[in-house]
Specification:
It contains 2 helices and 22 strands. It is α/β, with parallel strands linked by helices.
Length: 204
């Protein structure tokens, strides 16, 4: 009689099967693909709210979906990525929009939270954990990561090609101009630009 496969082998096979299924569902075109992705990711994510006016376009990828929560009316254009591996956590509110090629990565034990009615334009990158590199006698690759957090409150607009670093906290109603690099607190309803981002105005 054959022995049953080990738990580790079984888990690996399940993992590979889910990766294959993820790839198939992610690549499905058109409205049919959008409906299928919403149904599928409702099962895979910790939480995914009702579809409503939102949709998830092709090329969407999730890493460790069990650590990712998303509210209602979520919209993501093509080739976005949301990751919460290695103990990370991502929480996204309702009516949030990601334009194409947005990368949201909590990283190792990092936390990213995005509030209701916020949006990120093309090619924005959010990364909550950074590499440790303090010890010059060891390669940086062997020094692990330093967990951090990125908080984006409600009604925030982040324009194209922005980078949000660990320790970023963007308060309600703020606007981040294209190409900015943010690494600290942005006050409510302010408009910031540059690298590092600085206040250039205020809404209203």
């Amino acid at each position: 009689m054959e022995r049953p496969p080990s738990t580790s082998l079984t888990n690996r096979l399940i993992h590979e099967a889910l990766l294959l299924l993820d790839g198939i569902v992610s690549s499905m075109p058109g409205r049919t693909g959008q409906l299928l992705r919403h149904r599928y990711y409702t099962l895979r994510l910790k939480r995914l709210g009702r579809m409503g006016s939102g949709s998830i376009d092709s090329g969407m990828r999730f890493d460790s979906p069990e650590n990712i929560s998303i509210g209602d009316d979520f919209a993501a254009l093509r080739h976005c990525f949301i990751g919460a591996g290695d103990g990370g956590l991502v929480e996204i509110g309702s009516n949030v929009t990601l334009n194409s090629n947005v990368s949201i990565d909590a990283g190792e034990r990092g936390v990213i939270r995005i509030g209701d009615d916020s949006g990120l334009a093309h090619n924005c990158v959010l990364r909550a954990s950074s590499h440790n590199y303090d010890d010059p006698t060891r390669p940086w690759k062997s020094q692990g990561h330093k967990p951090g957090s990125i908080i984006v409150e409600e009604d925030v607009w982040i324009a194209a090609n922005c980078i949000l670093l660990p320790g970023t906290h963007i308060e309600r109603g703020a606007i981040v101009a294209s190409g900015s690099v943010v690494g600290g607190r942005v006050k409510a309803y302010s408009i910031v630009a540059g690298h590092p981002a600085r206040v250039i105005g205020k809404r209203g």
